[in-house]
Amino acid sequence: MLKVTQLYGFNVSGGEITLRPDIVGSGWQDSMVETLGGNTSGWQNYNMRQVISPPALSIDGAAVRVVFEADDFLGATLDDVYIGEQATSGDAYDMKASNPSPTQIKVSGAGSFSVPVGLTVTSDRVDFPITTTKSYVIAIHFAATPNTGLRTAVNSKPGMSSYYGSTGASEANTANVGVYTGPSTTRGVKKLQVETRDEIFYPPVLVSPDPDWSSVVLLTGFDGTHGSTVVIDQSSKAHGAATVAGTGSISTTQQKFGTTFRFIGSTSARWADHADWNFGSGNFTIELFFRIDAVTGIQQLIGQWGASGNFGWRLWTNNQFLNWNVSTTGVNNVADMTVSTLTANTWCHVCVDYDGVKYRLYKDGVMIASAITPRTLFDSTVQLALGSNSGASDYLTGYMDEVRISKGIARYHSDSGFTVPLSAYPRS
Fold first, then answer.
1. Could you say which of 3.30.980, 1.10.10, 2.60.120, 2.60.40 is the CATH number of the domain covering 28-195?
2. pLDDT (tens digit per residue) in 196-253
3. Can you tell me whether residue 286 is helix, strand or coil?
4. Among the four 65, 112, 218, 270, which has the fewest Cβ within 10 Å?
5. Cα–Cα distance list, 263 to 61, 96, 100, 342, 360 (Å)
6. pLDDT at residue 27 greater than cutoff 70
7. Are 177 and 165 within 8 A, CB to CB?
8. What is the pTM of this model?
9. What CATH class is the domain 213-407?
10. Are residues 357 and 372 in contact, defined by beta-carbon separation less than 8 angstroms?
């Protein structure tokens, strides 16, 4: 039997399927278009920032494309482009460093690209939500060669302005820069296009009930309203609400399957110690989706890992490395699996499972590491923590969604990997 629990664009409740009024639109639409006319040259090796403010934006969107236009004589080569939300303090051309972080704009997968003479080039799609109530900055660095020609605005559109810095190294991914000159009518960007929700195609999802539902001991999809800090365990074990510390909250800024949780600063979500987190020598599966802002330093995803004497297990990152560590005594720290695999600002699914013979570490359904030494994991008494260790450090900066722990089963137990879920996990 199949049970319909999710259908994109509809609400499914109590056996009734109704249209969701918030899922509307018609694909890619122009949120900002500016009329460009004149030509100006000599912009090679310059940094430029184009600011787009609410009067110029007409449509919200869940993702963005940028349309660039070159002059009639020279064309332009852009070797570094980022889009960011305007900072709440500083200069008009400064970007917020996080929440959201500046996101790179590419064309055909490349960060460096050319715009031919008198023509336009449209960037690849990038997950970056646009709302008409906020201001945005597109930061561009032009290549040193060849000579670069740009357009100028004709009767500059309200809400549009440009600023430029001195020549030199790219500052496109620098949130807060030095003094730039402007505002100017010189432009590199002609359009900002947004993707309305119905263009983000998700086929109707028929979700079978989970045959191992009784083994699920923790499940949270961070469902709720933007800004909420209420995180509920949705498993049948019903461990209740997590204790959320710090400034993080449920977010719609980055979405995987609906709302996610934004970990920023000293943020964590924790549940009290419970026998459900004690795996001993038994089978288990731990899995989640996450999107890390930067692959720098130590950042814990999930675990029971306190001070020495109370180490248990943890799934964590160290720079670009994804790691699985355990303790059998509460004091020893066994690095069973570690692999260089992470990329900043990219959603991925990570999983650890144990089938009684082999521990496997997966990323996006591919087994990337394994270990065959059997362990009896220490029964730590500290809290189960998401986004930090249980001792309130090693904080994650990024987003997380669909965290699930299954005890007593290895859901995937395959060196060949598995197909990553395309929808939220079943709730029954």
1. 2.60.120
2. 543 333 444 455 799 999 999 999 999 988 889 999 999 999 999 999 999 899 988 8
3. strand
4. 112
5. 23, 16, 11, 17, 26
6. no
7. yes
8. 0.57
9. mainly beta
10. yes
